[in-house]
Design brief:
The strands form 2 sheets. A 6-stranded mixed sheet has the order 2-1-3-10-4-11. The protein is about 35% helix and about 20% strand. By secondary structure, it is α/β, with parallel strands linked by helices.
């Protein structure tokens, strides 16, 4: 059996927002193998034991059994996030159908929470598969995440919600979209240390990452840098943990997550 096969398996999100979290993880001394996929698929792979650690949607943490949050590195926001939006063809109070981007389950749950709690609607849900032509979607509103939200198709939208901005204005708390999570029985000290080093290195090299990645996502270097620097937040601290629990509270109320779950944080410098 070769060394690669013996290494723990770590899965990261393939979206642009993850680039600062995985900075310099392609080195030979990285103590795990790293693969990339969409958030919802990473959650499924972790649940099936195909991954040992993954950057999964925060709602999936509360749906898993005995999962542990292993680092203080996360994907969150303190205001407008830019890459998670609902596009409304009708006023939000009149929405009867909502198409959900297949890529992330946290944002889907957040959209349901905000619509139910803020405007009192619980629309019928439709799938918006990855790779689908969004112009064929006839729903009253569409949730788009990641690169599809940054570069949306021509949509006759009467209103657009940036879900990060909407959440923060409503609750006064940060929002946490994804965390590094381990399944039971996995030794994570070395993995967590390397993941936090990667995040710290990424934060110190945002301009370099923006220069490298911008053109791939049809952005200018300046747009990409400001997305990393101004729209995203990569540290899971006390306020972020409070925001995570507020989100969980609303998810339980709507039947989107089981009650009685308490986050388990490894001893990995999470405040």
């Amino acid at each position: 059996m070769n060394d690669v096969a013996l290494k723990p398996r770590v899965g990261a999100v393939r979206y642009l927002n993850t680039k600062p979290l995985v900075y310099d993880l392609d080195q030979a001394d990285t103590p795990f193998t790293l693969s990339f996929d969409y958030p919802s698929r990473l959650a499924d792979q972790l649940s099936l034991g195909l991954l040992d650690v993954a950057l999964i949607p925060s709602i999936e943490y509360f749906l898993g059994k005995d999962y542990r949050i292993i680092t203080d590195a996360c994907i969150g926001c303190l205001g407008p996030v830019w890459s998670v939006k609902i596009f409304f063809r009708t006023p939000p109070q009149q929405v009867k159908t909502l198409a959900l981007d297949e890529g992330s389950r946290t944002s889907a749950a957040l959209a349901k929470i905000l619509l139910a709690e803020r405007v009192g609607v619980r629309p019928q849900l439709q799938a918006l598969p990855l790779g689908s032509d969004m112009r064929d979607c006839e729903a009253d509103a569409m949730l788009l995440i990641g690169d599809r939200a940054i570069h949306p198709p021509a949509i006759d939208a009467v209103e657009v919600w940036d879900l990060g901005e909407t959440w923060v204005e409503w609750t006064g708390l940060p929002f946490v979209f994804a965390m590094w999570v381990a399944r039971p029985g996995i030794a994570t000290e070395e993995i967590a240390k390397r993941l936090m080093e990667a995040r710290d290195g990424g934060m110190e090299n945002l301009e370099k990452i923006a220069e490298r990645e911008a053109a791939k996502y049809q952005l200018t270097t300046s747009e990409c840098f400001h997305y990393f620097h101004d729209n995203l937040h990569f540290t899971l601290g006390p306020q972020e943990k409070e925001g995570l629990m507020r989100y969980y509270h609303y998810a339980v109320q709507l039947g989107l997550a089981p009650s009685g779950r308490t986050p388990i944080y490894d001893d990995c410098k999470i405040a």
